[in-house]
């Protein structure tokens, strides 16, 4: 009993501990479930499970609303008070958010087997935790004394937009109206995840770079941040209105902004410090993925017979290459720094990160290269297997840190 009490005390000692732990477990579970489903559909295991939710939409929900958000909230609960010299979020508050979202996620998994009513209850609990998180972060935002709150405002608004997308998914499950599903998917990517990860990258990558690279000129143009977020929102609205073929211009502009920032932030120089390089590599995928989206849009516009000619390659370059790689990079840095450990990325974590890059390539290549399209199922399973293997090893390395005391003896 004392051991369990001590674990609980350590998990609640800082916001990132419990939420990163939940996100790490979810990073394993969601891909484990997805690989199991793919294996059944591709005939590698006997029979195909009859899920209560269409698998591809369940996969999208689990990734957008129950994997990335744990890491995002763990980061924001930590950084909002630091960014703005605001009031600290209390343990009972962030632990409540974590427990609601964990319980909801587990019910969602159970509902995939047991029926839609359990799924609805699970989404409802996740939504309650999400709503609580929005209230907590806006409270810090509105009461903090700092004058510069631009990054915080953008992150908070994006989180609120994600809450609308989550609510829309719940309405879709209840009503089966595809309008709600479409809004949930587009809002989750273009109004929530991309704006919030771009905002965090804009705030943190040049800051981290300036701390370790000599003679570094910190470049953080806010005009480009607003432009990139605007292009993301534009893409989402065009998707919702059925005019995705016209999104290529904004996509190309966003790609140009991202590639420019990669250059001025010191992409090549970052490889001298691995813990910095992983962030730069992850951000580089934003430019690549948006170039693919732009090409997809141009094909759709000029050659409508080749609609979706790149399949889901642009989306997975964005979601695995940019979002997931950034999560691994940021979570590794936060975990090391907030546990009193040296800010050094060891060989194991470095190669696990490389593994994620391989998973990204394996997932997108069959959609881009027609000659290997017939091998797509094998590539998809290989990508899922590499993600699962890398995340299992990353989890085994980092999870115990979350329930152990800091090595430097400090609180938090």
Question: Can you put this structure into words, describing what you see?
Answer:
The chain is an all-alpha fold. It has one domain: Cytochrome c oxidase-like, subunit I domain (Cytochrome C Oxidase, Chain A, Up-down Bundle), CATH 1.20.210. It has 14 helices and no strands. The longest helix has 35 residues.
Short description:
Pfam families: NnrS. The protein is mainly α and 412 residues long.
CATH topology: Cytochrome C Oxidase, Chain A
What CATH architecture would you give? Up-down Bundle
Number of helical segments?
14
- Name given to the CATH homologous superfamily: Cytochrome c oxidase-like, subunit I domain
Q: Give the fraction of residues assigned to helices.
A: over 70%
In percent terms, what proportion of residues is strand? under 5%
Ranges with pLDDT <50 over ≥5 residues?
A: none
Radius of gyration: 21 Å
Secondary-structure-derived class: mainly alpha
The biggest beta sheet is recorded as: none
Pfam family, one: NnrS
Keywords: Membrane, Transmembrane, Transmembrane helix
Transmembrane segments: 20-36, 56-82, 94-112, 118-141, 153-175, 187-205, 217-240, 246-268, 275-295, 315-336, 348-365, 371-396
């Amino acid at each position: 009993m004392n051991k369990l009490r001590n674990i609980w005390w350590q998990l609640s000692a800082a916001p990132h501990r419990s939420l990163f732990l939940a996100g790490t477990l979810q990073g394993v579970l969601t891909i484990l479930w997805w690989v199991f489903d793919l294996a059944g559909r591709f005939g590698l295991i006997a029979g195909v499970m009859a899920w209560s939710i269409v698998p591809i939409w369940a996969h999208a929900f689990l990734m957008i609303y129950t994997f990335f958000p744990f890491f995002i909230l763990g980061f924001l609960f930590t950084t909002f008070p630091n960014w703005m010299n605001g009031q600290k979020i209390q343990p009972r508050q962030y632990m409540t958010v974590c427990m609601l979202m964990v319980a909801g996620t587990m019910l969602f998994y159970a509902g995939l087997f047991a029926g839609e009513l359990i799924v609805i209850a699970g989404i409802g609990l996740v939504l309650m935790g999400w709503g609580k998180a929005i209230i907590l972060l806006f409270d810090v935002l509105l009461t903090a004394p700092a004058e510069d709150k631009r990054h915080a405002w953008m992150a908070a608004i994006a989180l609120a937009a994600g809450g609308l997308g989550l609510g829309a998914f719940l309405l879709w499950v209840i009503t089966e109206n595809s309008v709600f599903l479409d809004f949930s998917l587009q809002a989750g990517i273009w109004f929530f995840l991309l704006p919030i990860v771009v905002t965090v990258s804009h705030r943190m990558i040049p800051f981290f770079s300036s701390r370790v690279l000599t003679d570094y000129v910190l470049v953080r143009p806010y005009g480009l941040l607003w432009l990139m977020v605007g292009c993301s929102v534009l893409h989402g609205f065009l998707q919702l209105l059925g005019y995705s073929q016209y999104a290529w211009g904004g996509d190309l502009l966003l790609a140009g902004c991202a590639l420019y920032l990669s250059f001025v932030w010191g992409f090549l120089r970052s490889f001298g410090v691995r813990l910095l390089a992983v962030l730069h590599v992850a951000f580089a995928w934003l430019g690549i993925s948006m170039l693919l989206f732009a090409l997809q849009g141009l094909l759709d516009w000029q050659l409508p017979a080749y609609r979706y000619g790149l399949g889901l390659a642009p989306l997975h370059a964005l979601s695995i290459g940019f979002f997931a790689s950034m999560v691994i990079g940021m979570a590794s840095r936060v975990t090391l720094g907030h546990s009193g450990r040296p800010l050094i990325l060891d060989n194991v974590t470095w190669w696990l990160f490389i593994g994620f890059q391989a998973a990204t390539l394996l997932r997108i290549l069959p959609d881009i290269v027609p000659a290997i399209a017939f091998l797509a199922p094998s590539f998809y399973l290989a990508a899922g297997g590499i993600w699962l293997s890398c995340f299992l090893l990353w989890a085994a390395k980092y999870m115990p840190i979350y329930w152990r005391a800091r090595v430097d003896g400090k609180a938090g």
